Amino acid sequence: MKRILLTGKHGQVGYELERCLRGLGDIVAVGRGQMDLSDLDQVRQVIRAVRPDLIINPAAYTAVDKAENEATLAMRINAEAPRVMAEEAAWLGAGMIHFSTDYVFDGSKDTPYTEDDPCAPINVYGRSKLAGERAVAAVGLPHLILRTSWVYGRRGNNFLLTVQRLARERAGLSIVADQFGAPTWSRTVAEATARIVAANGGAIGPAQTGLYHLTAQGETSWHGFAAAIVAHRSSPKKPALAAIEASRYPTAARRPQNSRLSSQRFIERFGPLPRWDEALALCLDCAVTDGGADPPAGLAGGAARPCR
């Protein structure tokens, strides 16, 4: 069996990936305690000790607002560490799957972004993730770079859990309604990735190497996302949702107004992806107690904002 090194096992996508990859290889899943991406020497040492056939890297610095004041750390984790992973993978003859974000775009386009659209990140987080994409691709090893957006799940710090908590605590919530994207369940990302791994026996072929957008299908606003979450509540008492403009809730890091990504290239190569609302319904039906996550960066006074 192929040996697969999975980073970020405690993160939203990493947690789901560890479970979806079972049976597809010898999975070595590591968290920050085993491989701290801010320590590049440790990254090298772990990879050389594990000697994987494939590295899957969902781990990242994701504190979007905090990154504005921690640009060096964000760049080390999101750009330099992936470069080191790619270099070590190439030396071993291994492949790599690396995850990126809609934040590589400025959000000014009127239609969904394709992989061929020019990137123009408007915050430190986006710049660091774009640098990571380019660093991996520059090494020249067999690789996939999978951009996703608006990721949520039943664990961690994300929009879904925050809205669920606030819906229990407050009679009304103010939600940004002029930013648009596709809420994407972390399990959707993990299952689609596992499908690729299964189809190729843990290898990335030359014909597959490249950049793909991987998001749920359809689109909504943060307000629409919140409305769908609240509508699923079994309690008859549901908070009122007020739609607000993003300008009414300034944050340290600017966010793109349009985070819609076209996943057509991925679908044509690797198969279908679910609609965002259908995936959300499945997620909400999971028999898991609502998490008590801290509010994501950019949440205050009941105004829910995008989170990572």
TrEMBL record:
Gene3D superfamilies: NAD(P)-binding Rossmann-like Domain, UDP-galactose 4-epimerase, domain 1. It catalyses: dTDP-beta-L-rhamnose + NADP(+) = dTDP-4-dehydro-beta-L-rhamnose + NADPH + H(+). Pathway: Carbohydrate biosynthesis; dTDP-L-rhamnose biosynthesis. GO terms for biological process: dTDP-rhamnose biosynthetic process. Pfam families: RmlD_sub_bind (PF04321). Its EC number is 1.1.1.133. Its cofactor is Mg(2+). The keyword Metal-binding does not apply. It is an enzyme of class 1 (oxidoreductase). Binds 1 Mg(2+) ion per monomer. GO terms for cellular component: cytosol. Keywords: NADP, Oxidoreductase. Residues 3-285 form the RmlD-like substrate binding domain. One of its GO terms (molecular function) is dTDP-4-dehydrorhamnose reductase activity. NCBIfam families: rmlD. Catalyzes the reduction of dTDP-6-deoxy-L-lyxo-4-hexulose to yield dTDP-L-rhamnose. Belongs to the dTDP-4-dehydrorhamnose reductase family. This is dTDP-4-dehydrorhamnose reductase. It comes from Massilia glaciei. The gene is rfbD.
